[in-house]
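Q: Entry one of two.
A:
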Amino acid sequence: MAQIGKRNSLIVLHSTPHGIYLDGGEHGEILLPNRYIPKGTSLGDSLDVFIYRDSEDRLVATTEQPFATVGEFATLEVVSVNRNIGAFLNWGLLKDLLLPFREQADPVRVGDKVVAYILLDEKTDRIIATTRLNRHLSRQRPPFKPAQPVALLITARTPLGYNAIVEGTHVGLLYHSNVGAPLQVGQRLNGFVSAVYPSGKIDLSLDASGYQRVASLTDRILEALKNNGGRLEFDDDSPPEVIRKHFEASKKAFKQALGSLYKQRRIEFTRPGIVALDIRDEKPGDWKPSERRM
């Protein structure tokens, strides 16, 4: 049976002047309008389509890909507000996605970018959005391990740091002390699990912990030096946001990595920038932390 709010592989049944009809199982025949029909489609073909309801509440198919499907979190922009029912979000389809007033954790305005969860409303069988995120996060014990790399979605700034959805299932905390530059609500980035407590609380970091972080980053710096003729414009005075953009690391971690390379006589500071003192035909990870090049 075709799943509303998901991508489905459906069989072409027959064509009409308005489009082709697909086999939706218990949902019956579902129209794929002419504008979405792939060139060369024939009866009996299987098409990958997304199923949702049009403005007249009919099930319809599209070959377009929404920014998120039912069961996923996404950062979406508010494009209009209807004072009677709620706000509408751009989710990448011709028909905007409704964010009802009852599902708004805080009032939204046109132009706002909000982190929303996509769900199928049990009462209306329509796809809607909600910014009341906690009720849609897992209550199970987090399966993550310390130092595990994870995908993060920033949901809120707090006095302690930033709340982030981890791998689309649990919420964790990035402390301000572990963030080199301000983050934006709705921002997606990669991070690491620092700790998982018996209570289910998750601490996060934007860098791997301990020497593993420094070693990995020093490898990347050495590789960047090799690829740039032995010179880089970055050093420990570079802005945190610039370091984050180019090396996906905090300024603190970057300074530690530069210090490690400097002590090993691998680099020299040129203020601004750094220059390699010994770039050989070696692969990242070949050097050891105790080696010194005299």
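Q: Entry two of two.
A:
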Amino acid sequence: MSLDWIYYAISWILLRWHALWDAIGISDGRVLGTNWAWILSIVFLVVTLRVILFPVFVKQIKSQRAMQALQPKVKELQEKHKGDRETLQKEMMELYKVEKANPLMGCLPMFLQIPVFLGLFHVLRRLNPDNPRPTLYGWTADQFSDATHSALFTVPLPAKFGSSAAELSQLGYTGSSMTVKIIAGILVLTMMATTYLTSRQMILKTGWAEDPQQKMIQRLMLYGIPLSLLVSGSLFPIGVVIYWVTNNLFSLAQQQWVLRKFPPPVNANAKTGASGARPANGAAAKNGTKNPVQPASRGLFGRKPAQPEPQTPVVDTKALAPKPGAKPTTNAKKGARPANKPKG
């Protein structure tokens, strides 16, 4: 299937934002070695796409909440139909249908962003002075030339961490290749860190899955994807890395808002008081349950708030002392033989 319509859409949004910055006085000239009009165009391309996908993101959160609430019923079905996989799948699909829960909705925003990312990667990869078709996807020759020679702190946006000296020279860059590697390396590390924090934020608030396969997927999302960016990030043009970092920062802010608006459900096995407050960790431990959801008071990095020092209970020794004239009590059980009396 051709992705030309995505290339045209991304180019149109990018060029409209660039025209807006140009209209309000942000020229294509460099300030601090940076063409801010093109940088801001990429940043607000992210904002535009995330605003469009925001309703889908809210549906994703609601679907995840519904799936969490159904976990006790899912476990009951797994125990009831253990060994009968076909019946189990049929019963689970019926349960999802009745409760209006869709397991695939949790992955929908990610699937929708993949073609957008591929489209942006394709559009920015075309920014090459030797491109024989500069006016493709609605660009003018002047816009294409300006974007090709735009830079972030003197480093061209089409450059990559692994760009050779010949490729940098082709982009009109005359500086040191080490500068390119430093700028690109900082952006790639930032991309890895923000990707990790985005996944961790969601797991801290929704909790680790109890199903081993789902938990493995969560760990892959948390650790595997950021580590893979260490290699693949060196192949991305700097403009694409800027897009990715901006997208992650937007995700962090958006998830924080949505998770406060739609807080995760309290563990079904945990007992709450009359006020509806969550039980302490000790109460959950006594019941043999474990609440996988982090308390709302924990921050992004899951650090626990300072706990007050335990106070030693004061014992009233006078109340425990025997009263005058009271018969002494023994701890001996009924029916036990008395101790042997010493022979006199």
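A: Comment on entry two: The chain is about 55% helix and 0% strand. Confidence is low (pLDDT under 50) at residues 268-303, 331-336.
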